[in-house]
Write a structure and sequence with these properties.
about 0% strand; mainly alpha
Length: about 180
């Protein structure tokens, strides 16, 4: 169900070029992480944001359909659950019962899945980094492997492990926020 990263990135680049052409200004940058010669805090911040928009959209697009379908399936499974029917019997409208009970329960696995995709964004976005000409950890990882640089490869793997631990904590916090049954006293 996921869109391939190369297809998504090329479509995002085409969209960015179209936006620049239609507006007559360079609204978004297609390559690189920043422009040379930009001075000052706010101009640098704006420049970095303009460079970051397209790669971010590309990384979001590649997995959006999968998360959307997972959320839809889980929500459809929960619509006929006993607790949703009980909420309806107590006087909630269908929309309120779905929003307060079914959606909240069905979003937990999706939120956990999204949290565990964070390490891949930092260490595994090799194709996105190549298409948008970013010097990121994915390309650094490939370079260290090709140079037989054990220390660099280990550093990237260790960073990936730290990001997985961070994602596990983030997923736990999201589950606690969404599900009152797992809150600690």
């Amino acid at each position: 169900m996921n869109t391939h990263v190369v297809v998504a990135s090329i479509l995002v680049v085409a969209g960015g070029l179209w936006i620049n052409r239609v507006t007559g200004h360079r609204v978004v940058y297609v390559t690189g992480a920043s422009s040379l010669g930009v001075e000052g805090f706010f101009p640098k911040l704006l420049d970095m944001a303009q460079h970051l928009i397209l790669p971010s959209i590309s990384l979001i697009i590649i997995s959006y359909a999968g998360y959307h379908m997972m959320q839809r399936t889980l929500l459809l499974d929960n619509l006929n659950a006993d607790y949703v029917r009980t909420a309806r019997a107590k006087g909630l409208t269908r929309a309120q019962a779905i929003r307060k009970h079914a959606l909240r329960t069905s979003i937990i696995p999706v939120a956990t899945s999204v949290a565990f995709s964070v390490p891949g964004i930092f260490t595994g976005a090799i194709m996105t980094e190549t298409i948008f000409a970013w010097k990121g950890m994915g390309q650094y990882f490939i370079e260290t492997i090709s140079r037989n640089d054990v220390n660099g490869t280990t550093a990237v793997a260790a960073f990936g492990a730290v990001m997985i631990a961070f994602s596990a904590i983030l997923a736990d916090l999201v589950v606690v926020a969404l599900d009152p049954r797992v809150r600690v006293s």
